[in-house]
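Quick note —
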Amino acid sequence: MYEPYNPGVALTVGDLLHIPGLEIRLAAGRSGSGNPIRWVHVSELEDPTPWLKGGELLLTIGMGVGSTPGKQRAYLNRLTAAGLAGLGFGTGFSFRSVPKALADAAERASFPLFEVPYPVPFIAITEAVFTRLVAEQYDLLSRSLDAEHTLTRAVLEGQGADGIVKALIRATGGWAVLLDLHSNAIAAHPPTARTYLPILSSELRSPRAESLRFSLSVVEHGQHIAIQPVTAQGRVEAFLAMGKRDALTQFDRIVSSHALSLLALELAKARAVSDTERRLKGDVLDQLLRGTLTPAEARQSLERLGFDPGRPFAAAALADTDSPDTLARTCEEVLARNGGAFMASPRDDVVLVVVQPDGPGFLAPLRAAISARSAGTVLAGAGSLTTIDQLSQAVREARYALQVCRTEDRLQAEFADLGTYQLLLSLQDPDALRTFADSVLAPLDDYDEQHGGELLPSLWAFLERNARWESAAKELTVHRHTLRYRMRKVEELTGRNLSSARDRMEFFLALRARAMLVPGDGLGRGPARRAFGPTVQATRPVGAVRSLPKSGPKE
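Predicted structure written out below.
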């Protein structure tokens, strides 16, 4: 019995057989009568498949099926391989009835084959199918518009990205997850959708996901999953993944496409708000560091940003291979998840962060969380816990600590752990550090510049190796006699004696001070520095700061 049109359900070959007025009869392949019909095509070619896409119902009077059983079987097999929905065979023209070889092949392939008697015109079949397809398209459009209105209402009511994802799933069923660029869930509905995060994260890291505008369709654990980028202003902001047990329908894809547009607007709005907040916080931080705010204004500004002026403050300086703006956004994401007031502002080649931790030791977990979301290795330095009026000093300490990380190949450093550097940094003035370093090392600078010498790196290696000739020479890849000559030259040019503990200490501190004054570290705006830092790092082994040798040069 013919079932009336059911919205959302595709017309099948079986439905067609039961339409009143169509006197057509199934000849073979009953088990395939559930095949959906995408289109109707009439052809008398021996091989029509090059002009078909799959899903078509083919109508023919048999001129191209062949006159022998072998050709007829081959004809049917071509249609099956092409993914057609079924075959309507018109009798009364080339054949009185459906050829037995054709019917047998259709039965074996579970391919629906029905007879179209001579009095039934093909146009009657095409009209019946097209009427149903038009109804399906109208229904698809109507349901899609209703779903899009529901999604748009979620935005207008201020439900945010989470509301959009929920509305999407109410319309389509299944599940959906909105992921950030680090594969963390921004929104997931229903909550159990989070169980698919490992699969989604793995797919986003696969080579197929290298293009910024890619989309993926995968089948995992019985779920048909589609992953698409959420793009705003030419930049990928997130990824939307949705999945169902059944294959995603055209309706699902239309509604998810609308959801992508709304999510792009929502995330772009969130980014604009975040950028505005960052500029505001950056302005407040600038004013605090320049000391242009009175104590009352400073307290008021920090309270507006959620800080408690009565609690200690901590400053950190971070850097990695990303641009400072990108790293600042990553810092914001991490700090926002941690809760509590914070400021994160890019400055030169670093990002300055101000927080109110419960106590010391906050830097390591903060750096680890930020590094996990960054493309490169993140270095971090932190200053001492301090009060509002000493915040500029804490920021200065944090930047010095970050420079120590660069010099010592550390991932993180807190000012309280800097050891020898604390003595140098206690000068608090880059010009004072520079003056001290130049007073000790200037003769060596001049000699190296004029003669292309290696006195400074040789002195560094000599002191780092506890004045051991063999190990220092090996590190420099020179003969020990060459190193002895260089050290005698150092003593000659500076008037100091490397056998003197006091002179060795001055050399050591001057070299450490010079390492702190690498161009671009933001330690001040004094005259141009001598670029000693990179040379030192090229010859110094990785590791902690060594103590000075307690005696003179050893043989």
